[in-house]
UniProtKB/TrEMBL annotation:
InterPro entries: Ribosomal_uS11, Ribosomal_uS11_CS, Ribosomal_uS11_sf
GO biological processes: translation
GO cellular component, one term: ribosome
Pfam families from the UniProt entry: Ribosomal_S11
Protein name per the record: 30S ribosomal protein S11
PANTHER family reported in the protein's UniProt record: 40S RIBOSOMAL PROTEIN S14/30S RIBOSOMAL PROTEIN S11
Organism: Methanosarcina mazei
Length: 87
């Protein structure tokens, strides 16, 4: 069965977050603040499937999460977005 790429990215993000949580615990850090960023501008504004999976993995690993902040750049009427006219 074929899964979407989203599942692959989620799995990679969870593994990365688990490894990072181990490294943080080794250094004595038990709480973090998370800043989530998407491509932004006139591109995609959602951070993607891996962001939520990584945050959950940190929480499951016992790392305390202080605040989650979205730092996606938002255009102030910059260039025209890609794509044709929709009627």
């Amino acid at each position: 069965l074929s899964r979407g790429l989203g599942d692959v990215y989620k799995r990679q993000a969870m593994q990365m977050a688990g490894q990072l949580a181990d490294q943080l615990r080794d250094k004595g850090i038990n709480g973090i603040h998370i800043r989530v960023r998407a491509p932004g501008g006139n591109k995609q504004r959602s951070p993607g499937p891996g962001a939520q999976a990584a945050i959950r993995a940190f929480a499951r690993a016992g790392i305390r999460i202080g605040r989650i902040e979205d730092v996606t750049p938002v255009p102030h009427d910059g260039t025209r977005p890609k794509g044709g006219r929709r009627v």
